[in-house]
């Protein structure tokens, strides 16, 4: 994406180096943010409409929809050069890891609702909503995201560079004809000195 590259080029070189070095993690975080919105959008839509009495079920559905989006975005963007497995094995492992991620994501919400009884009428509706959000959308999501990033690189997309980077279009260039970054300045300075000596 040229726009992103132009924006990143405005950062100091050490920052650019760190962003490039950790690009998979950053892309994974962007995908996580996108699927976070999908997850919570579906969750709240269901929770406030047809599944008002089944909040955990609504959350599971939201997470499952987000997982499908996550697989597509992870394979085609976050880890687009990683691979090492046949497509059906990769997909199966992705959904297995994501299933474990769902369990990790749901556990804090389940504990909030059923272990700590943070639901009305035991607590106010406002306290219930805050507890749901903190446990289901912050604590659960952070725990699941950390686990999934590690597991995706370890098991689902284990080999770096297994697939070609389709975003890079190599151009054959004769390097002997391309001046280095500073060579133009040095050559022009040398020419002017030689001209001065000649005159």
Task: Describe how the helices and strands are arranged.
Elements: H1 2-8, H2 13-21, H3 23-47, H4 55-78, H5 87-115, H6 125-156, H7 183-198
Helix pairs in contact: 3-4, 3-6, 4-5, 5-6
Please give a handful of descriptors for the protein shown.
disordered C terminus; 199 residues; mainly alpha
What does this protein look like?
The protein is an all-alpha fold. 71% of the residues lie in helices and 0% in strands. It has seven helices and no strands. The longest helix is centred in the C-terminal third of the chain and has 32 residues. The chain is globular. The C terminus is likely disordered.
Largest sheet: none
H and E order: HHHHHHH
The tally of beta strands, per DSSP, is: 0
Structural class: mainly alpha
Please report the number of helical segments: 7
The stretches of 5 or more residues where confidence is low (pLDDT under 50) are 168-175, 181-199
End-to-end distance? 51 Å
Radius of gyration: 25 Å
Q: What is the global morphology?
A: globular
State the helical fraction: over 70%
Overall average pLDDT: 75
Strand percent estimate: under 5%
């Amino acid at each position: 994406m040229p726009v992103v590259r132009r924006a990143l080029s405005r950062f100091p070189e050490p920052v650019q180096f760190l962003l490039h070095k950790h690009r998979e993690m950053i892309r994974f975080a962007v995908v996580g943010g996108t699927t976070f919105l999908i997850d919570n959008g579906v969750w709240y839509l269901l929770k406030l409409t047809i599944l008002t009495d089944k909040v955990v079920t609504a959350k599971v559905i939201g997470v499952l929809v987000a997982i499908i989006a996550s697989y597509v975005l992870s394979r085609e963007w976050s880890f687009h050069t990683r691979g090492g497995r046949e497509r059906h094995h990769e997909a199966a492992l992705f959904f297995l890891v994501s299933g474990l991620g769902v369990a990790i994501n749901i556990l804090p919400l389940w504990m909030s609702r059923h272990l700590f009884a943070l639901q009305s009428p035991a607590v106010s509706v406002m306290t219930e909503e805050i507890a749901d959000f903190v446990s289901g959308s912050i604590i659960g999501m952070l725990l699941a995201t950390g686990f999934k990033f590690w597991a995706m690189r370890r098991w689902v997309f284990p080999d770096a560079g297994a697939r070609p980077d389709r975003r890079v279009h190599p151009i054959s260039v004769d390097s002997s004809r391309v001046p280095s970054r500073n060579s133009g300045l040095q050559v022009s300075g040398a020419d002017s000195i030689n001209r001065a000596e000649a005159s």
